[in-house]
Amino acid sequence: MSAVETSTRISLKGSVDIVSEFFDYSINSILYQRGIYPPESFKRVSKYGLAMLITSDSGLQTYLNAVLGQLKAWLTTGTVQKLVVVVTGQQSNEVLERWVFDVAAENTALSPDGTVDKTEKEVNKEIAAIIRQITASVTFLPLLEEACTFDLLVYTDDDVQVPSAWEESDPKYITEADEVKLRSFTTKVHRVDACVSYKAEQ
Fold first, then answer.
1. Phi and psi of 123, rounded to 5°?
2. Cβ(27)–Cβ(85) under 8 Å?
3. For residue 196, what pLDDT is reported?
4. Please, what is the average pLDDT of the chain?
5. Which end of the chain is more exposed for a tag (fewer CB within 10 A), N or C?
């Protein structure tokens, strides 16, 4: 194997960075595609070989950075189970969508140099397929007919120390929900499975 290929193989730290970065881009994509924030508050960037949109709202950036920073710590220790993006109607206070990203530690043995037999390029292809599905979600999700807010729920192991700024939350399940499974990706250190559930049309 060439030196270039070896250098792009994934380590634990590399996997943590890849997964947390994926969460950042996927959350931004959901907020844009579902109209939670106005389109003019997003800027276009290139990532995963795709044209992506990320927020330019400083308050939202600060919030996401704080959540994702803590998430990285829990990914490193293997104590995070899932991240959920909850979309709630502002007027009705009803949960309309739950985007669930299940996280599992893979039992792949690290090589002597602390990496697994997979490259970032391979993982980025898998991630791009999920991002494309999020972008295409407007074709099958019901129209959000009221202004909406969002919450981020992070499920961790029971014995995890939670920062004081965080608070306990109920799961915010949807009554009478339909569910669509999305693609998954694995770094061979972490595996992420995605799905979206939404309020079924009556």
1. -65, -40
2. yes
3. 97
4. 90
5. C
Under 8 Å between Cβ of 116 and 107 = no
Tokens of 195: 């799905």
CA distances from 9 to 19, 122, 144, 185 (A): 15, 10, 41, 16
- CA neighbor of 85 nearest in space, from 25, 45, 140: 25
With beta carbons less than 8 A apart as the criterion, state whether 9 and 117 touch: yes
Q: Which helix (H) or strand (E) holds 82?
A: strand 80-89
For the segment 162-182, the average pLDDT, to the nearest whole number, is 83
Q: Which pTM does this prediction carry?
A: 0.91
pLDDT for position 202: 66
Question: What whole-number distance in Å separates Cα of residue 18 and Cα of residue 24?
Answer: 10
Is 90 exceeded by the pLDDT of residue 6?
no
Task: Report residue 119 as tokens.
Answer: 């490259």
